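INFO  loader      accepted 1 record
INFO  loader      residues=546
INFO  predictor   begin
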Amino acid sequence: MKIAVCQINTIIGDIEGNKKKILDYYKKSIAAGADLAVFPELSICGYPPLDLVEKNEFREAIIDASLEIAQQTGEVGILFGTITEDYEDNIGTGIYNSAMLCYDGEIKFVQQKTLIPNYDVFDEVRYFESAKSVDIHKFKGESLGISICEDIWNDADYWKDRLYEKDPVQNLVDKGATLLINISASPYNYGRRTVRYGMLSTLTKDSNLPLAYVSCVGAQTDLIFDGGSLCFNAKGELQLLGKTYEEDFFIFDTEKNYEPLTEFEKSFEEEVHSALVLGLKDYAKKTGFKKALVGLSGGIDSALVTYLAVQAFGPQNVHVLLMPSKYSSEGSITDSKKLIENLGISWNNVSIQPVFDKALEMLSPLFGGLPSDVTEENMQARIRGMYLMSLSNKFGYLLCTTGNKSEMAVGYATLYGDMCGALAVIGDVYKTQVYKLAEFINRDGEIIPREIIEKAPSAELRPDQKDQDSLPPYEVLDKILKLYLEESKEIKEISEIMGDAGLVYKVLRMVDLNEFKRKQAAPVLRVSKKAFGYGRRFPIVQGWRR
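INFO  predictor   done
INFO  writer      dumping tokens
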């Protein structure tokens, strides 16, 4: 069978636009001589639709669009992700995440999703029921075993510990499937594609069946979908790999012998660089922003975010604002200007000192002669936030925050100050990883000035301030944070690894105490297996480590 893999980028809720794209790719599939065109999970409405699913009018529009697609089909089949309902089922939601197969002007077969994930960024149990059964469908000489995303992530031969009792793909194999198809919307984090490859290679080899695993691509707010659709032969060999971080279309001929592929995931730096650019670009495109704004401090974080913004928007659409104070070093200005010249972007320089001085004067009677502390540091950050938000409002800029994951974890970010903005571009990138990305960017020549990379990190909110005045070295801090945030280890386990229980307690307590800030933060582009935001839910008010 010739399968057209239609790896598309959808917009959540744009049912008409998504329908048109599906039909355009279907016509392209016919022209390419395909037997079947396959699209990703919930491609008709975009993934994840979240509480839009609860709206009757939304679901009705999806069903109408699905029927319209069916009516425009001929002998070439089309398989796409949609929502269906069981109107007679009065227990549960009666709503299903479904794969719909259409040809000859009709809906011929519907397979509902069996395994409904309810962990990390997934909350499908809130909306969807599990399929009551799985069945094969005979089409053009093949017995199609159709599954949806999570359904294929429970193979007993690959996973030591499984999340579900049911194995819908094995059920399809047992029922006589001759060809497996999985339509997917699986969010990316670094290493995820390697896991997909290993799991799917094991499954196809053990079942002795070919597989077309069709991924979606694009970013939906904080979630990034990397594409990279995977097609395997019955020996478990990877035959075709879709483009990553962009739409793709290709034909997988199950009867053809392809040269097996062995490379499917690139280095951390290359993958995360591409993921962040796509995340920023899609956020802007899907929300209507044409230009980006960054507060450029002379530090490595804002330099990296500015570079990523240029990749996403183009240099002509990126503006930066320098906002020095009396505590700013000379290098913070000269290094910033060097980066500006390297990137070819527009800029302004507006001091915060006059506003800061006036604010101190006005508040002095209220402060009652108390010594300076973090209050005055936060005032400076909030003045900068006011400047940036004012420019964003006046000129329609998308304001990008510049805080990294390490800073967001321990609270080294100021609410209503440097946390102002629409999107936390590097909020899931640890400080040590920021340096790796900077070196990757400079691999063919200096773009981010060496002076920025080599200077000691500082917020420059008081004389001679350095991050390491109150934090452990970032190499140590990031190791503790990764163990805590991504591997869910607690103080005893981490202390045994790090050898310093007091330091571990201090860092973990900082993370816990700053939960209130993260609840008010901009959405974070997710590139790790546990990012701040929807996928990590901890209480603000709690006594675990108080």
